[in-house]
Write a structure and sequence with these properties.
The protein is an all-alpha fold. It has two domains: 207 residues, MFS general substrate transporter like domains (Growth Hormone, Chain: A, Up-down Bundle), CATH 1.20.1250.20; 198 residues, Growth Hormone, Chain: A, CATH 1.20.1250. 78% of the residues lie in helices and 0% in strands.
């Protein structure tokens, strides 16, 4: 078997493993969804609105700030697969089990102790994911060739999203029939076990870097600063980040869509109906992932970046022009598809706009800059909705989306057209 044939076999095998692993991870995540299961759990044990509202802050900060640690903790490409797997078993999965234990022991503990314990464990869980988030996407870019990685990510994350729908439905059924604290203990215990099975799947991934004898020099703090500055000097990268900030300014209102359709201006949709229709968000997200992966591999991921903004603008237009259950379903589907398209395109554009051979620094720096620029946007949108009404914030969001679309369509270049830089390894 020739080298190219062996490489093709490894890529196909790795693709199947990634789809299987991400499917399991998406299922377990939905079993204990932060916005659903954990919120209800916290509420039952006396959590205040401020504590529940802190979930969004934990998500933003936990996924954002620790990424810089990952640059140094997972610096070795030769041992990266092993280190990533170990970190999940040591720094992430145990916190799911800890929440399950808190739920099981809840009757013997004070209410506030349970609530704060759950919130703190969740904070460590999200921060653990944040440490490895940038490294994980760089690992994907390393394992899969540029002509295939979009489809791998699209199929994997799309399957994860579809599995998440099943997980959410299963969790809902369990909580509907079992109102005791043990239902939460069972859900978190199952989530921990399934997460372990998910990560164990990646142990079988073939990583060509594992057999390398030579190791690249480890990054130092000044190296990270140097490469970050090099990234920032790249015009197309700056255009991309600015376009993403504008697009997120136009679509930081996704959580407010629910409130809009509950209100008279959206048609006063029943809560139970709204929850059922909300499944369209996950379905749209899965489709958006899969389509963006295939289209991006063939035509470049600029297409997915621009298409994602077109879809969000279309969703806002339908929202402003119609009302009722059908309107809600269409808007959720379009919003999910927009988020799915953007999800794939964003990651791959970060890969391909990298102007140097330290892609992990480029990915981490891009995510942090984007996060720092957009962290306050949901709070601003919520404040505008509170003062001026829900319809006004939707109109402003549509205006921002138009500006984002014009910016990206006019100034963003397809990185491959200019000869995207090649990096060492299979995923160059």
């Amino acid at each position: 078997m020739g080298a190219s044939e062996q490489q093709g076999t490894a890529v196909r095998r790795n693709t199947r493993l990634f789809i299987a692993g991400e499917t399991l991870w998406g299922f377990q995540t939905a079993l204990v969804g932060a916005a659903t299961v954990m919120t209800v759990l916290l509420r039952e044990y006396g959590a205040t609105e401020t504590m529940i509202g802190a979930i969004s802050s934990i998500d933003a900060c936990g996924l954002l700030l620790p990424q810089t640690l990952g640059v140094f903790m997972f610096a070795s490409q030769r041992t990266r697969k092993r280190d990533i797997v170990i970190w999940h078993f040591v720094g992430i999965i145990p916190w799911l089990c800890a929440i399950g234990c808190l739920a099981a022991l809840a009757p013997r503990m004070a209410l506030h102790v349970v609530a704060w314990g759950v919130l703190i464990c969740y904070g460590f869980y999200v921060s653990g994911i944040g440490v490895v988030a940038g490294v994980w996407t760089d690992w994907i870019a390393h394992l899969f060739p540029v002509q295939r990685r979009g489809r791998v990510m699209g199929w994997s994350w799309g399957a994860s999203s579809l599995a998440g729908i099943m997980g959410a439905l299963l969790a809902g059924e369990l909580l509907r029939h079992d109102h005791s604290h043990m239902a939460y203990a069972l859900l978190y215990g199952a989530a921990g076990s399934i997460a372990a099975a998910s990560i164990a799947t990646f142990c079988w991934v073939t990583d060509p870097a594992s057999s390398r004898i030579e190791e690249r020099r480890r990054l130092r703090v000044m190296d990270v600063v140097h490469y970050a500055c090099t990234s920032m000097r790249n015009r197309n990268f700056r255009v991309f980040i600015m376009g993403r900030v504008l697009a997120m300014a136009g679509f930081s209102i996704v959580p407010l869509i629910t409130l809009y359709y509950l209100a008279p201006e959206g048609g006063s949709v029943e809560k139970s109906t709204l929850v059922s229709v909300g499944a369209m968000l996950g379905a749209g997200f899965a489709v958006g992932n899969m389509v963006a992966g295939s289209v991006g591999d063939r035509h470049g991921h600029r297409a997915g970046t621009v298409s994602g903004v077109v879809l969000q603008l279309l969703a806002l237009t339908v929202l402003l022009a119609t009302r009722g259950v059908w309107s809600c379903g269409i808007v959720y589907a379009l919003a999910g598809a927009s988020l799915g398209m953007t999800n794939i395109a964003h990651s791959n554009m970060l890969f391909e706009t990298c102007p140097h051979d330290r892609r992990i620094v480029h990915i981490t720096f891009g995510n942090i800059v984007l996060g720092l620029c957009t962290t306050l946007l949901p709070l601003i949108a919520g404040r505008i909705a509170h003062v001026y009404g829900m319809r006004m914030v939707m109109v402003i969001s549509a205006g921002c989306s138009v500006v984002a679309l014009g910016w990206l369509a006019r100034y963003l270049r397809e990185p491959r057209a200019g000869g995207a830089p090649r990096t060492p390894g299979l995923g160059a």
